[in-house]
Amino acid sequence: MTTRPAAAVEFDPPSGFAFEPEFLGQPPRAIPDELDQGPHAQRLKARIVGLATAGLLCLLLERAPGIDKVALYFLPAGYLGWIGVGLLLLAANVLLERARRGGPYRYVREGTPIAAKILALEKAVSQIVNGVPSSYAIYATVAVRDERGTLTNYRLKSDDFSADTKDRYEAPHRVGDYVTAVYLPGRLEKTLRLYSFLELNPRACLRRADATAQSPWKVAALAVTVVAIFVVLFANVYAFGRYGPLDFDFRLAIVPMVVGGLLLGGGLLVGLWLNHRSETERALERSQHARPERRMVEHPAPFLGTGWHRWLVGALLVLGAPFLGALTVLCWCFMANAWLDTSAARQVPAKVEEMTQTTHAFLFRQYELEFSLAGSATRHKLWSTPQELGAFTSEAAVAHVRAGRLGWPWVEKVVPAATDR
Predict the structure, then answer these.
(1) Do residues 192 and 144 lie in contact, with contact meaning Cβ atoms separated by under 8 Å?
(2) Inside any domain, residue 25
(3) 112 & 137 share domain
(4) N or C: which end of the chain has fewer CB within 10 A?
């Protein structure tokens, strides 16, 4: 919240102006039941249901058949019981908070209401992560007269809301309106809030515009897209570790890599730019219609952020997107080379050099076999499983080498030599 002395502002609340009924009487005030139907109370309820459902699901999955095998690769699966209990405790904590009616309810119970005149209303990005707007907020410039009679301007901010739901939030006020602001006793400078920003009263909150509510098909498409991206990224990593050809010369795949860099990487860059331009045009159009009606204007987010961060993210995208596209197509070639391979396996004597188990980010565990083929000092790595690694009792092994559909020899599997069986 920023403050500054008010300029020449006409400040004269109309005779019919009155605070909401919940502010009648002296503190501490009772919390009316109506506030349990407001957006804040509904969000708490949804959080309780979500945490409790997730907790119970974890407790059920802990007893699901095969979950011990999943835990070998995805470590949290081995602690589902503890995770479930933790989620249920969090749900209980939110339930207790709702019962105590703390947080913004304090403003109704203990706060001092005060008349505020809306001087400006804006919706703008509040947080940018890696060049992408992640959250928005509504900002209101208001003039208030404190107990000493001093007229001061304040720039007040609503709670953040996610970028994908920003079109569903709209201020219920217009520029020039006199509205209720509230602050905690003796802390006006630090705690002043517009009452509508607290999202307590369903009749005085940030309205959701039904006409712009997200379609369930759009939400489903977004969810599918996010899952698909993670599947592709995991498939890329797995293809490198499991289907990487022996002694591969990357020049053999220069053409598909260039095509992947141009189509996938370039397509990603073009898509980001077109989406930003479309969003900017919609925001400017809404603001153009809002100004004559004294409604809230919307400021579009700058592409990729601002300042040096914008140039850094831009450089990473320009360089990283084509590189990622090239690697993705290369991984697809590795998978096609292996999955479409119809050649017979050729057994080649091999030596087990090392077996490793690596945990990534305390979440995923990777099992890897490092080996060398007879007559070569070059070491190769192959993703494996705990069962396959446990079968080795010595370094003698046999590698099953196949020719590859694209002519890139690859190792189908490595097994213990006959002397170990």
Answers:
(1) yes
(2) no
(3) yes
(4) C
Same domain, 352 and 313: no
| Two structure tokens written together for 129 | 């992560």
Check if the beta carbon of residue 58 is closer than 8 Å to that of residue 81.
yes
Same domain, 208 and 221: no
Q: Which domain holds residue 240?
A: 216-339
Are residues 13 and 152 both part of a single domain?
A: yes
Could you write out the DSSP letters of every residue in 142-187? EEEE-TT--EEEEEEE---EEGGGGGG-B-S--TT-EEEEEE-TT-
One-letter amino acid identity for 326? A
Residues 6+ apart with CB under 8 A from 182: 23, 107, 108, 111, 112, 113, 114, 192, 193, 195, 198
Residues 92 and 124 in one domain: no
User: Could you list the pLDDT tens digit for every one of the 421 residues in the chain?
Assistant: 665 565 567 888 998 899 999 999 999 999 999 998 999 999 999 999 999 999 999 999 999 999 998 899 999 999 999 999 999 999 999 999 889 988 999 999 999 999 999 999 999 999 988 778 889 999 999 999 887 888 999 999 999 998 888 888 999 999 999 999 999 998 898 999 999 999 999 988 887 655 444 556 666 777 788 888 888 888 899 999 999 999 899 899 999 999 999 999 999 999 989 988 998 898 888 888 888 888 889 888 888 877 777 888 888 889 999 999 999 999 999 999 999 999 999 999 999 999 999 998 888 999 999 999 998 889 999 999 999 999 999 999 999 999 999 999 999 999 999 864 4
Q: Domain count for the chain, please give it.
A: 4
Are residues 208 and 220 located together in one domain of the fold? no
Residues 6+ apart with CB under 8 A from 199: 38, 39, 40, 43, 104, 159, 205, 206
